[in-house]
Amino acid sequence: MIHSIIKRDGRVVLYDQQKIAAAIVRSMTAAADGDAADAARVANDVQRELEATFREQSPNIEAIQDAVERQLMNHGFNAAAKAYILYRANRTRAREANTSLMKTIDEITNADARKSDMKRDNANIDGNTAMGSMLQIGAAGAKAYNEMYLLRPEHARAYREGDIHIHDFDFYSLTTTCCQIDILRLFHGGFSTGHGYLREPQSIQSYAALAAIAIQSNQNDQHGGQSIPNFDYGMAEGVAKTYRKAFYRRLRDIVEDFLELPDEDEAIRALLAEAEAQTGETPRLESSEVFLTAVTQKLCRQYSLSEDDARRLLNRACDRAAKKTDRDTKQAMEGFVHNLNTMHSRAGAQTPFSSINYGTDTSPEGRMAIRNVLLALDAGLGHGETCIFPIHIFKVKEGVNYNPGDPNYDLFRLSCKVSARRLFPNFTFLDSPFNLQYYVPGHPETEVATMGCRTRVMGNVYDPSRQIAYSRGNLSFTSINLPRLAIESQGDEQVFYGKLRDMMEMVSQQLLDRFEIQASKHVYNYPFLMGQGVWLDSDGLNLHDQVREVLKHGTLSIGFIGLAETLTALYGHHHGESAAMQEKGLEIIGFMRDFCDAKSQKMRMNFTLLATPAEGLSGRFLRLDQKRYGKLPGITDREYYTNSFHIPVWFPISAYEKIRLEAPYHALCNAGHISYVELDGDTARNVEAFESVVRCMHDCGIGYGSINHPVDRDPVCGYVGIIGDVCPRCGRHEGEEIPPERVEELRKLYPEMPAFQGIE
Amino acid sequence: MTIKSNQEKLGQGVGFERIRRITGYLVGTMDKWNDAKRAEERDRVKHSMKKDA
Questions:
Q1: Does domain A161-178+452-673 have CATH number 3.20.70.20?
Q2: Cis peptide bond upstream of A425, omega within 30
């Protein structure tokens, strides 16, 4: 006789046959296989079996469930048995997920981020702060739910076991990745942040402040980084407005002073309004001769001045207004950079991941904005610290800024100089054929722009008339563990390609499943992105409309990491080692691109191939594969897989050769790509050498590239440069003190030295 | 930031900051990098400026 049973947590409770019968009924109903009477008979036999096995002892839950399965099958209720097994497996999965979720939260709560790799998964979230931890706990909870309820079982398994990686999985049910914010369209007529309405900005200071607010607002609607594709064109409008105001004020003051008049405000206002109406032009940094002549004549008439005097006054007003505008622009750009490095978003845990693209606006106003934002980047933060945000991206284009004689060539040179000191700007190359194909002169929206670390959105299968960078972005991306496919194929190329095709098919399905969730959201779920018309065509939607159709302007991206290890696993070498391997590498990535293109055509959606940025992933895939296959030489014997199609970071190769080998992959990876070159400090500080690397990237057809070099800083004396063991400025070792007298000496030499509280 | 008095010597216990790029983003110090990326940064070799292939 069974009296009691043992529950999973060890508690002993009374045996209740009704509960067993109820569970059996549920399975029978689910499978449409048997009724209540059948369930009672099965339950009786379960009891009989338990009595035979356990006699007077208490069975545990697992033993009872085993007996139910057996008896269902004995009675021929195979479908019901299957339903019961599935139900049981699901419960087990949920229980395990709960346990592991609690363990995860425990680690987030109690471990020091410096000791917990999990808490350092994203290097820009401080896992030691309250808000950072809350963000991580939320993410852990969302991940557990998403895996349990939103993924197909095969996708969940592939994700869990590391065949694939679903990026930003914590946001699976919530939103999309990123967007290129067209600030001009946003600013015209003003906009609402969701917390208040902002009027159209009227000066460069407001343009810069609102640009930062736009990035911050949109960051709350999406999980990825945010980017401005037209920073120069956008700021140029603010510069023009500031100049116009400054010009009128300077002209008024100069006239009042020269003629000793008390108040000419109204008169000058009217005079300029007339000149503007007459010529159809406004005062600009480089005003047209027609406009200047009109103003001169009016000054002559109004104040009985000689033409020479009038022109002299006018020129002085122009000069002073230009100086004032330059000062304001400089301050605005410094403010913008400071703002983006200090403002917090997402519950205060991180600064917004932001990027700004510029370099091609050749108007005097645009040039002023570009020069000043570069100078602000060069100056660094309050104590000369290198700015972490935003990512600056300089758009390189022949005829615009690439060659001597191009109108913005000076700014390209300046960008090289600044990047040689501050690691930014990165460079995007509009002349590379896969970018040039979209380029229409005079239409900056057709210039490729980058967001975050590499995301690129240009082609548009859904709407071929809108192949532009503005107002679009990535919806989601999932990466494939390429080396594992190669290891599993055991050197058989055909097997590998078969596995790769299947894997890409599965990932496409998973991306479409995720799209279904994203597409069923409404405008009110994205109050800024959609509500303010930031996303392409969302301005035609109402608050309660679904976003399905307009989202199709975005991309669904399939990524990969570890091409180098993949080639080594398949053929014994990677693409840095021989031309034959380079060909094999291009075949693999070309195959992946073809798959994406075919899928795009079939679905009329933008499936694109991504050279995955592999921050957390490079280690995760590797650890899982090391556990499976051990340390395979050249494949799993390091702590990470190589980033996307890169030549391994440890492989000795010249900068030019690396660029030459990686460039063709840029053409294939249309969802985004980046190549890095590592220079030693001395080479990087040599601007000629630095520029020659950038030019090599341009000429080889790189899409997006940047140059790494050591940037160290001694917070005590403020030195920025390369520091080995000893600071070259103050001569101290790490952690060593410098005597106060030495501090005073240094301060005389370097007035910009940081001031420490209590020292002054 | 610790508050130092006039008597104390400046710089005691203060390390150097080393800014590096990780997957496109700059990171202020390497304290916050995960283990795999620390290893990757450690393994990076400089690329020479030689013209030959």
A1: yes
A2: yes
Question: What is the reported pLDDT for A722?
Answer: 83
- For residue A757, give the nearest of B1, B12, B39 by CB distance: B1
Q: Which residues contact A702 (CB under 8 A, 6 or more apart)?
A: A429, A432, A659, A662, A663, A666, A675
Task: Map residue A229 onto helix, strand or coil.
Answer: coil
Boundaries of every domain in chain A? 4-88, 97-160, 161-178+452-673, 184-353, 712-749
CB A554 within 8 A of CB A176: yes
Of A46-60, A261-275, A393-407, the poorest mean pLDDT is in: A46-60
Q: Give the span between the Cα atoms of A745 and A758, in whole angstroms.
A: 18
Report the C-alpha gap between A709 and A697 in whole angstroms.
17
Buried b / exposed e along A22-52 (16+ C-beta atoms within 10 A): ebbbebbeebebbeeebbeebbebbbebbee
- Please enumerate in sequence order all residues whose Cβ is within 8 A of that of A616, keeping only pairs 6 or more positions apart, or say none: A121, A122, B34, B36
> In the A/B pair of chains, how many CB contacts fall below 8 A?
183
Measured between CA atoms, the residue of chain B closest to residue A743 is: B10
| Mutation for A interface: B7, B25, B27, most A CBs within 10 A | B25
Distance CA A253, CA A276 (A): 20
Tell me what the pLDDT averaged over chain A comes to.
92
Report which listed range, A24-33, A167-176, A593-602, A684-693, is most confident. Answer: A593-602
**Nearest one of A373, A367, A434 to A401, comparing CA atoms:** A367
CA distance A662 to chain B (A): 14
Q: Suggest the residue from B47, B49, B50 to mutate for an interface test with chain A (most A CBs closer than 10 A).
A: B47
- Residue with the bigger pLDDT between B1 and B22: it is B22
- C-alpha distance from A681 to closest chain B C-alpha (Å): 10
The domains of chain B are located at 16-44
CA dihedral A521, A523, A525, A531 (to 10 degrees): 160
Kind and range of the H or E run holding A705: strand A704-708
Task: Tell me the pLDDT tens digit for each residue of A210-244.
Answer: 999 999 889 889 988 899 999 999 999 999 999 99
Nearest CB to B16: which of A649, A678, A734? A734
Q: Which residues in chain A touch residue B13, judged by CB atoms under 8 angstroms apart?
A: 735
Q: How far apart are alpha carbons A670 and A593 in whole angstroms?
A: 8
Nearest CA in chain A to B43: A650
Q: How confident is the model at residue B29 (pLDDT cuts 50, 70, 90)?
A: low
Task: Please name the residues in contact with A611: beta carbons below 8 A apart, sequence gap of 6 or more.
Answer: A454, A559, A560, A643, A644, A645, A665, A666, A669, A671, A672, A673, A674
- First-to-last alpha carbon distance for chain A, in angstroms, is 86
Residue A734 has its nearest CB partner, among B8, B15, B46, at B15
Q: How far is A114 from chain B (nearest CA, A)?
A: 7
A483-512 pLDDT, tens digit per residue, is 999 999 999 999 999 999 999 999 999 999
Contact A656 B34 (CB under 8 A): no
Residues of A in contact with B29 (CB under 8 A): none
